[in-house]
Design brief:
Blueprint: H1 2-25, H2 34-37, H3 54-63, H4 66-75, H5 81-107, H6 112-126, H7 139-151, H8 155-168, H9 171-191, H10 198-216, H11 230-234, H12 252-256, H13 268-284, H14 291-309, H15 324-341, H16 349-359, H17 361-387, H18 399-406, E1 414-417, H19 419-422, H20 425-429, E2 432-433, H21 445-462, H22 467-477, E3 481-485, H23 492-496, H24 502-515, E4 527-531, E5 534-538
Parallel strand pairs: 1-2, 1-3
Antiparallel strand pairs: 3-5, 4-5
Helix pairs in contact: 1-5, 1-6, 1-17, 5-6, 5-7, 5-15, 6-15, 7-8, 7-9, 8-9, 8-10, 9-14, 14-15, 21-22
Length: 541
């Protein structure tokens, strides 16, 4: 067992370094969602940042959950917010792997090979979900805690999982609620008594419910509005191919299967293969998979269906399967491996011989050391390659130098740019932007209406042939500078941009190529800073 623990620990460390080290080691490399969740956290260090920025009200009061804000409020005063978020995955992988090992060991009925197989499976297929240190990074450890609490009959820990869900990732409370109610209902009907610890669990669950109702039951701040209805969303190009959120699809196979926010997380072919493998498992090992595992599968799919029925009221449907299905897979793998390697398994002689061979101290340690060494070399090569890669702010060179210059401008400076460039500025320069691709999420009607209007204005100015269209950003919104990225005039994704802006932007680019783009040839007195492909232009006369 000690060798198994060390082997899993080594695999965890290698996988964590592969997934999380490049972003932590380079400040100019970060996950896209840092432009949503992390940038405004710098207010904890400097409250004067981002004054009167509507996006701060949106993400701070409505999007980021209370526990996440409290964590950054406590630590973000002393640690750079981006560094803190990129260090969190290293911390979160510890409870994730410990709980995964305990669950796998129980699913394998104590067989060490099963515990290793289940843990390794989850580390390989699901640890990437911790990346970035965002609210969703807490989802998998919280789910594992709740499932372990049910399987080990420690209901106080189940209540703790509900509280953690309310504080860090509220959608997980729905998954855990359906799962725990079903399992506990079956147990109570069979055992004819209340389970031990139900009172503590009930009190903690009520605390979690009060947190959710207090935080999310309030009227949204002015200028935010309600989520779109299904009919409204279906009519919005933003929710279709080419839009900001590729949700709807005319082909039901693409709509329900795959990696889209509307999909279950597996392709149709893979889903069919999983069903077939489950059928084989049941036929060969009829009682290998536990009741709790089957209930987790069933209730996660039920939550997926419920999220579709209440579209956008319970966030995206895929959030209810993207964590539960890997945990079910882990329990499935551990159960099957436990059956295969158990001492009383029929025909397990060769496998038991292999286990006895590996169980010899010198052989086992030598094989483990060789595997860890090979893994370390592979991870080292991969990390080195990613550390030498381009920065997150691309295409174009000079983004970090421009960010450093923008930090020298007054805190109230409002910056305009191509929306794709603007997404990097609040995080790296700590200055507000007019609009950006990352922040313009069509999840609330009134807020997105403002974002869409400002995005259109930025694109119009970016590809303008007349300085009046550029300076209008100062007159209408108070923008002080425009960050020009010369690569946006030849990069086709930048030119085509997203729906519903695509057609108008292609037309204005065609016109600009005939008449000339004024931002590519600014007068010297307007140029405040230049680095690489980037130029900071003063707006107004």
């Amino acid at each position: 067992m000690k060798l198994a623990v060390w082997l899993i620990a080594a695999f965890t460390l290698l996988q964590a370094c592969k997934l999380f080290l490049p972003t932590l080691a380079r400040q100019d490399v970060y996950e896209d969602d840092a432009a949503q969740h992390i940038w405004w956290m710098y207010q904890f260090q400097d409250p004067a940042l981002f004054p009167d920025d509507p996006s701060v009200a949106y993400f701070r009061r409505l999007i980021d959950p209370p526990g996440y804000k409290m964590l950054f409020g406590a630590l973000g005063r002393f640690i750079d917010a981006q560094v803190l978020s990129e260090a969190l995955p290293f911390v979160l992988c510890v409870p994730m792997v410990v709980l995964a090992f305990w669950l796998s060991r129980d699913a394998a009925k104590g067989v060490v090979a099963g515990a290793i197989a289940g843990s390794a499976y989850l580390i390989y297929v699901a640890m990437h979900g911790l990346r970035g240190g965002f609210p969703r990074s807490f989802a998998l450890p919280i789910l594992l805690l709740g499932v372990w609490a049910i399987t080990s009959r420690r209901l106080a820990w189940l209540g703790s999982a509900f509280v953690a869900s309310a504080l860090f990732f509220p959608p997980m409370a729905i998954t855990l609620g359906l799962f725990s109610l079903t399992v506990l209902g079956i147990r109570i009907s069979r055992e004819k008594k209340m389970p031990s610890g139900w009172a503590a669990c009930g009190l903690l669950t009520m605390l979690a419910a009060s947190i959710v109702l207090t935080v999310y039951g309030r009227t949204p701040p002015a200028g935010i509005g309600r989520p779109p209805t299904r009919q409204e969303a279906e009519a919005m190009p933003e929710y279709h191919a080419g839009g900001r959120i590729k949700f709807f699809d005319s082909d039901w196979r693409n709509y329900y299967f795959g990696s889209k926010p509307s999909a279950v997380g597996l392709g149709l072919g893979m889903s069919a293969a999983v069903v077939l493998l489950l059928a084989v498992t049941v036929a060969v090992y009829p009682r290998a998979i536990s009741l709790e595992a089957w209930v987790l599968l069933a209730t996660s799919l039920s939550a997926f269906v419920l999220a579709h029925a209440l579209l956008f009221r319970l966030y995206f449907p895929n959030r209810y399967t993207m964590y539960a299905l890997p945990v079910f897979g882990m329990m499935w793998v551990a159960s099957v491996a436990g059956q295969m390697f158990s001492r009383d398994a029929a025909g397990a002689g060769p496998l038991q011989g292999l286990v006895r061979l590996i169980g010899r101290p010198r052989v086992g340690v030598s094989l483990a050391a060789a595997a860890v060494l090979l893994g370390a070399v592979a991870v080292g090569v991969d990390v080195k390659k990613r550390l030498a890669g381009p920065p997150s702010w691309s295409p174009g060179k000079g983004g970090e130098q421009v960010a450093a210059f923008l930090r020298t401008l007054p805190r109230q400076t409002l910056v305009a740019a191509h929306p794709d460039d603007a997404g990097h500025i609040p995080l790296r320069a700590r200055r507000s932007v007019l609009a950006s691709t990352e922040m313009s999420v069509p999840l609330h009607v009134e807020f997105y209406r403002q974002c869409a209007e400002r995005t259109e204005a930025e694109l119009e100015a970016c590809y303008a042939s007349d300085w009046k269209e550029v300076d209008a950003l100062r007159d209408r919104y108070g923008a002080a500078v425009f960050v020009v990225n010369r690569m946006r005039y030849s990069d086709m994704p930048s030119i085509r941009y997203l729906e519903p802006f695509r057609k108008k932007n292609e037309d204005r680019v065609a016109l600009g190529r005939e008449k000339g783009f004024v931002l590519l040839h600014p007068p010297a007195e307007r140029v405040l800073f230049e680095a690489g492909d980037m130029v900071v232009i003063r707006l107004g006369k």
